[in-house]
Amino acid sequence: MTDALKRVIDALDVETFLVCESEEEGKKLALAMMKNLGFKDVDLVFIEFIGSGARIRARAYMHRPGDQYGWLFAEEVKGND
Question: Does the residue 49 lie in any domain?
């Protein structure tokens, strides 16, 4: 995980437009894209199919409630910037 990602409080949203045949294909592509980017805990928070593709907002959860939060270790993070 990069140093900047250690500073994310809860989640990272990625918004994009994917060329696809249907909303269902768009969902599959978006989830695969997030997994390919290295995120393990992902969800789709918005999808709108518009003719040639889908407008999508995908969310990668960096920390869930009760996790070991990266920003609690500010000295470690600060030293690696």
Answer: yes
